[in-house]
Amino acid sequence: MSDPNAAPLLQVSDLAIEFASPERTIRAVDGVSFSMANGSTLAVVGESGSGKSVTALSLARLLPSPPARVRSGKILFDGTDLLTLPETALRHYRGGKIAYVFQEPSTSLNPVFSVAFQLSEAMALHRHDLTDRRAAGLAALSEVGIRDPERCWKSYPHELSGGMQQRVMIAMALVCRPQLLVADEPTTALDVTIQAQILNLLRDIRSRFGMAILLITHNFGLVKGFADHVVVMFRGKIVEQGPTDSLLAAPRHPYTQALIACVPRLGESKKRLTTIDYDKLDALLSPS
């Protein structure tokens, strides 16, 4: 468990990000602030277009600039403002201290290189202490629940299932021993059974290795039992945040209430799923 009195591992303050084009400028993230402790788990929840993935990518400055530009804010990681670092210094953080797992493993893995090559490349960049990369790679594949790590080590991405590919992506992050793992919709492309396996794996990794996990998701159904705290984003802003159990039990913001109401529940006999009435929501959120 994380120490509540310790300094935050990650502290994002008043972050604003814009995307500029000759026609117009769009503010995708607007005044976002949150923090995470070592070993904690935070879920950022919102619909597509809410700004959650842009926020996640900005942590290691992975957004292409242009068109993206940071208009204001700080991203402090272990006390260092990542927004002020030169590109050469930032490479130490990307993959090494902050690792990412994305929602489409088939597009994240390079199809022309074997798992062995891609795992070894990650270790060459961030684990200079390793003398036997093959042994470390096989151990990482085993740690993420791959039953035949030898065969997987020699395989190419197209020879693996979607669930196996995602486990390889997690192994690539794990082998570098990051302090923060950013999981951006890591189960979206997988079936329900594999989704549960991947979430259980991430939960187990947090327990065994003590790394913090930032989960990006649109699904409140994944949050309960996984995250310590929740941040809810709507139209680039944080509209509500707090401890998971408290927020789910008594959501205060109309958008949070609407999102939770959209989660289907077993045993309910409703003929139609609940949807969000944006006209009503806009009326509630408009200043009087």
From TrEMBL:
It is found in: Cell inner membrane. Pfam families: ABC_tran, oligo_HPY. GO terms for molecular function: ATP binding; ATP hydrolysis activity. PROSITE patterns: ABC_TRANSPORTER_1, ABC_TRANSPORTER_2. Residues 10-260 form the ABC transporter domain. Keywords: ATP-binding, Cell membrane, Membrane, Nucleotide-binding, Transport. Belongs to the ABC transporter superfamily. This is Oligopeptide transport ATP-binding protein OppD. It comes from the Bacteria. It is a peripheral membrane protein. GO terms for biological process: peptide transport. Gene3D superfamilies: P-loop containing nucleotide triphosphate hydrolases (3.40.50.300). Transmembrane segments: none annotated. One of its GO terms (cellular component) is plasma membrane. PANTHER family: DIPEPTIDE TRANSPORT ATP-BINDING PROTEIN DPPD, OLIGOPEPTIDE TRANSPORT ATP-BINDING PROTEIN APPD. SMART domains: AAA (SM00382).
